[in-house]
Amino acid sequence: MKTLRSRIYLAIGIAGVAGALLIASLGSGYATRFFFDQTAQRAESTLRLTVAALSGALSRFGPLPELIADSPDVRALLERSSQTGLVSQLNGQLKKINDVVEASDIYIMKPDGLTIAASNFDTDKSFIGKNFSYRPYYTDAIAGGQGRYFALGTTSLKRGYYFAAPVRHVDTVLGVVAVKMDVDEIETAWRSAEHEIIVVDEYGIIFMSGRPEWRFKAIRPLSPAILERIEATRRYPTSSLLELPFAYLEGSGGGHLLASVDQEGTHTEYLVKSAAMPAAGWTVHVLAKTAPARTQAYVSLAVGLLLLLTLILTGTFFIQRRQSLMDRIAAQQAAQNQLERRVDERTADLNRANEKLVAEVAERKSAEEELRQAQADLIQASKLAALGQMSAALSHEFNQPLGAAKSYADNAASYIDRGRIGEARDNITRISTLVDRMAAIGKHLRNFARKPDDKLAAVPVGQVINDAVEIVAGHVRDRSAQITIEPGEEPLYALGGMNRLQQVLVNLLSNALDAMETAAEPRIEISAMSAGAGRILIKVRDHGEGIDEAATGKIFDPFFTTKGVGKGLGLGLSISYNIVKDFGGRLTVESHPEGGAVFIVDLERAREVPEAAAE
Ligand code: ADP
Questions:
Q1: The pTM is what?
Q2: Percentage of the chain exceeding pLDDT 90
Q3: Atom 3, ligand 1: residue with shortest CA distance
Q4: pLDDT tens column, 310-322
Q5: CATH class of domain segment(s) 452-615
């Protein structure tokens, strides 16, 4: 993925560079042509203006020699050249005309070429007395034609364009009138940094130029014949005629003519626009520098390439951004898909686990149900067993006295039959005793039907002990037993029921007295104390025979008794045990190391002590 993308970017980059090169090569040609065209247009218009200005100047002075030649004064002077008065008059006139038309010089020559009158008569460079017969304008005019010529003035050493016309009288040419036009002023307007304007003659010699150093330089090689001719006409000082290192160039001009000038170590390229002025024998060249156009072309090209580069970079940037965005979206999508897949898998796992759990719960429920059923069955069975035990015990307890009562009754009946009333009465008394015993058993059994949820309250332990001792006081006296009570340091209140606790203590005291039947010094010690963790202990210790190990585990069972028939029911401790249990306490027994038994009632201490005890 990554390599593919980098290959794409590489391809875009190569395409961009190739495109840039193509555009550079095409664009450089186009841009060069475009700016060369503009340069050419400017050069063209400069050329037109220059040619117009030159033509204007030429046409201004063109007719002047003929006009002056027509003057009778001129003719008269040439016919009678000795008249000095006329000479000075004409000199004045010529000077005036010269000033008005702003020509350089106006002068009149005799047929032999000698100047006899001139506008510059009063200057040190006066033409008067000078012979210009070597000048072509003179020869043309004296031959009857119009003289036109440009040359460096031999006297003034100033370049000028010469106009000449013959002075005629009938068919004779009396002389020549010449007007010299100064070209310096025209040139001053030609100075420019962008282009050069040159006027060359038929030999390729620069006659006029905005650059003074180019004047009289040839743009073509000069042959000896030409040089000879120039010498003859004294047109230019041959000593200063040199070749300008000028050369026409080929190609790369965008269809325009190019030339170069290598001067002073610099190579300057020009775009050349030329126009011929055949009337004057001139060719005007406008040489426009190509450097600005080339610079403009390069700058435009550089700007274009820069724009292209910016475009490519921006495009690449956006493509890349879009690509990375798409990548990100794809990655997010993939992550989301993976997440969804995981969620699906997890959900499936959870569903499976859930189903398993539901099955397990159902299994557990059914197991629980089975267990509950088993428990219920067990309870039922144990209830039945308990009932059976109870029934067996009860039937045993009741059958014995009932059997005894039956035989006593039978005996009583036979005693009555035999008239032995005393024995009969005795038997009936025994029956009554047996019935009392059975009634006592029934009374005790009622205690099993107690309500275990009877309200518990704070019971004053000391008071209950005192009451219980009070109840058994008769027995104690009968046995000549001693009872000591240690009620504890503070008044103790235990959680329970007053009468029931009293019943428990009475039972324990009665058992203690029974256990000391044969004792020499029957003694009972009762103590109450507060133990840790909110408990109260009541201890009843006797000095009797104690409890043997085999009996310890059974003494709290119902109907367990070691007392003889008619003496014990075996229900007292069992009932007491359950009462203490209902109080949230425990009834236990220990053998005292010094003999005798210690019964311990362990009760919860009452947190709030009300004014009246419960029950
Ligand atoms: P009963 O007094 O009618 O026999 P109990 O349930 O009160 O019924 O007592 C069960 C048996 O526990 C007694 O028969 C006796 O053997 C034994 N026992 C109870 N208290 C004492 C005691 N203080 N010392 C010795 N044995 C005792």
A1: 0.50
A2: 32
A3: 568
A4: 888 898 889 889 9
A5: alpha beta
